[in-house]
Every structure is written in structure tokens, then in C-alpha cells.
């Protein structure tokens, strides 16, 4: 299990806007469930966005109006007999706050307000925050087109807010047998894995800029053959320092170890070891031994906590475990110790 407060810190690294002054109070609050944390962040974020101004977009409309606007739709006007009512049907674009981004924000806020798992104080804060969303419609949460959302200079402040909405909707929203909706108390493992990966990358970018942390593409070390048929290799995190390279592959599982039913023993996930070994050997094309690999697991409730170093084929392959349920200062110490041992 991961401490809810640490989810805030992970989000703060992944979405650096959470380090701004307006969110600092959130960092000091205690949350029982992730839904409370998200409600607090959204309430603060929506209020901040209102001060900046809600985004607007042009929406095409066709309706019978008294004063002509846009393009007059003669055929529809005739069919509807609108001119008898001294109106005419027009096709026009309306510049409105009823934008897709605002619809997602309002709908997610309303979901949290209706959710019994969210504390009354955060529901109150959300109700106050969406007071200015009176002209904004709600959307079907099961049909949100995330891929259609485009960010630019004028709406980039929505990026963190909509990512919070995405986490809520895609990882916590559940439908009951009677068709009603409720929220899970925690984020599912798939989305936590993505957040965990992003957090570790941004942590090293912030605290160890000399390591040039990136999610680097790893080229296949092939002498001949059509490499376009080979799958792309991209690391979660690659760190480089004074001729040394460390490739980190983050793993967030319910079970860190796999059980071999034939021999009745537990081992590391074989595909994870094969993957990190492949990354390391292909990046170390000169066989220098200066490229190392690290499997960084999030700690589970299992008794076995991997903490091993191996030299395989001349390269160091390490397996470490990060305890995300400890105080965040301890998490920082663990992350610092890992890279200082392997790179400095």
C-alpha cells in the first residue's frame, strides 16, 4: 500500500505546477483516500484557473434567432416555418466557456461531490469552485475523448487539472450492478505505474541535473538486417554522468516476485530481467562495462524485498525496492543512495 500523502508528492514532481504557492496547503493535509486528495487538488486548481480566466472555444450552433448571425440557413428556416415566428435559422460559431475541457472539469467535480467516499469539507470546496460553471454542460465520463484534447499556450494551465481528471475517471471510476457510479479508494496499479515512472524521472531531473535524466531511446546493436522490423526500445529513465550510464526500469506490481509452481520457489519476474539486460547490452555496444541497469520495484506487502547486485556479461544489473509507504524524506534518501552508489 502507498501512503496517500506520498501520492501528492509524486504528483508534485510529475506535474510541477503543484509546487506553486496555491497548493502548499494541500501538502500539509492528511487524506484517508485518494479521492479526498484529488478533490482538494481540483478545488484549488479550479479556483486558480477561474482567476486566470476559464478557457473558451468556438462551438458551431444552428438555431432560430431573431437577429441574423453567421450564415442564414434558408432551407431549414422554410422547413421549420421559423419566419412565421419572426425568427430565422442561422449557422454560426459561438465563443463560449462551454468548452470540452471545462465540461470534463465540471463533470469530474460533480462526480466527486456525489461520491460518498469524499469528505464533506472537500465537497464544499468543490461546490464553491464550480459556482462559475453554470453555463458549462456535463459529459458522459465513460466516453471522454482524451486523445482529442490539444494543449497550447492559451490553455496549458489545464494540463495538470485534466491529468487529475484522467486518473480519477480511468483508474477509480466503477459502475455498480444497478448502474450507479462510485469511486475506488485507491488508484489502480496500471495508472500508479505510470505515475511512479514519471515521478522517478522528474525527481532525478530536479535533484541531479548533472545526470541529464531522460526517457532515452535505445538503439539496437545490429550489424546488418532490417532494423525497422525490430520493436522500439525506450527506457523509463536513463542517467548519464562522466562516461557512465544507468538505465532504470520502474516496476509497480501487486506482487514483486513470481512463483515457480514446478520448483515451488520465488524468483524475480523473468521478463523484467530479460528486458533490462537487453537494454543494457544494446546500449553498451562497445562492451565497455560502463552501462548499468536497475530494476526499481515499488515495495509490496510481500516478505521478500529484492535488493541485489549482479555482474552479468560484464555489466552491473541491480534490483532495488523503493518503499512508497514510508515518510517522503526516507523515499528521497533511498533515491539519492541508489544513484550515488551506481553513478558517483
Automatic annotation (TrEMBL):
GO terms for biological process: DNA restriction-modification system. InterPro entries: McrC, McrC_bac. Pfam families: McrBC. This is 5-methylcytosine-specific restriction protein C. The lineage of its organism: Bacteria, Thermotogati, Thermotogota, Thermotogae, Petrotogales.
